[in-house]
Amino acid sequence: MTLSLLLALGCTGSGELRDTSGGTATDTTEPTPGTTDTATDVEGVPGVDDPEDPVFQDDEVPVFTLSIPGDSWDELQEQTAFDQWYVEADLEVDGQVLESIGIRTKGENSWRPIADKASLKLQLDFLVSGQEFRGLKEITLQAMNEDRAMMHERVAYRLYREAGVPASRAQHAQVVINGESYGLYTNLETVDKRMMRQWFDDDDGPLWEVWDVDFYDDYVPDFQLEYGPDDRTRLQATADALELEPEPALDAVLASFDLDLFLRYWAVSGYVGQYDAYPFREPGDDCHVYDDPESGQLKFIPHGVDESWYDPGRVITDGVYGLVAEHCLEVPACMATFEQHVRDVLDIAEQIDLLGYFDTVQAQIAGLTVADDHKDYSDDEVATYQAAMREMIVERRAVLEGQLE
Fold it and tell me: How far apart are CA 185 and CA 359, in angstroms?
């Protein structure tokens, strides 16, 4: 098939995404504008409103209570943005005590020392083999140091997932360390093998972090392996295909890269203003790609959306540096499919009442943001940025439809 035919059909040879309800979360036909199919139906999205998985439910904000002994605390104080390692601690959450877990600081530009409001990574089976909490072996607690609305991730990831893009679940959490409240955090699902198992029938492929790389020959060795075999064959095949002129390149890349899923990821990124990630960064950043053994294609997965919702006026096809998107901009059939994905995302946001979801989350955390004495910004700043985020959602259809025209 040619690129034009594949994209017109909404089918790029991609394998089906896993659906825990027994169906598929991605169909091979393009949805009719204004309707909901299995790619957008909440029941087809793993972990959304799942009563069997209360870790990320919207109706409560859990408290994570950490007890860190003196020697571990001393080691945490020695950690930097470039040198982090796990030390021993205990965790209590929802009445369950997990002993001898691992804890470390995390982050790059947003990194803070443990004595401030540090983002944290918890490894539950650090010293106790098989220890987990409701199926989780890792917990990621984001300090929201770059998120002045204190709700960017929770709302943005919801839209990615509802649009059928494999993405983390997110909820808020309160964190207490050695008896002191450290304030409000985002409880973010770790992008790992267990998460891949929700979305893909085969979770044994390599998962790569996109951190200052793109699909060029020189960057292929620099993709960071998160787990799985260090097999860069499809990364290299994608880079080789993209050396061609745009239209033949996008034809050739279908053998190793899920182009339709990427266009959907790009469309949601444009809606939420995720301009700190591929394809808006040079080189690419803040996402993952999963090498799906079943489909034989690379699948895009968002990551690090804490700096979204900040630039409502930016044109979503401007300032694009990612090689895949650059090629798409030169091919009318590809751009037509991208524009349809943007329109579908606009419909999905209305179907799930994203504005109502924003209002619910804002009301839920209102008292908790004020009580957070460790946050990097004032209560007035939080209110200002929340108001701007809400306005962006209210006006998003008009703004993006204007850009498409």
Answer: 18
Parent domain of 106:
54-193
Residue 80's CB is within 10 A of a number of other CB atoms, namely 9
CA distance 257 to 300: 9
Among 382, 330, 350, residue whose Cα is nearest residue 152:
382
pLDDT of residue 245: 98
The amino acid at residue 66 is L
Are 128 and 165 found together in one domain?
yes
Write down the mean pLDDT value for the chain. 90
Question: What's the structural domain count of the chain?
Answer: 2
335 by DSSP, 3-state: which? Answer: helix
Specify the DSSP class assigned to residue 16.
P
State how far the Cα of 292 lies from the Cα of 196, in Å rounded to an integer. 9
From CA 308, how far away is CA 272, in angstroms rounded? 6
DSSP 264-275: HHHHHHHHHT-T
Over the stretch 71-111, which tens digit does the pLDDT of each residue have?
999 999 999 999 999 999 999 999 999 999 999 999 887 89
Of 350, 366, 381, which residue constitutes the final position of a domain?
A: 350
Residue 289 domain-assigned?
Answer: yes
Q: What is the dihedral of CA 194, 198, 199, 204, to 10 degrees?
A: 40
297-302 and 119-123: which strand pairing? Answer: unpaired
List CB contacts of 267: < 8 A, sequence separation 6 or more.
163, 338, 341, 342, 344, 345
Sign of CA dihedral 343, 347, 348, 350: positive
Dihedral sign for Cα atoms in the order 198, 201, 204, 208: negative
- On whether both 221 and 315 belong to a single domain, the answer is yes
pTM of the model: 0.90
Give per-residue pLDDT as tens, 223-254: 999 999 999 999 999 999 999 999 999 999 99
Residues 182 and 59 in one domain: yes
Residue 402 placed within a domain: no
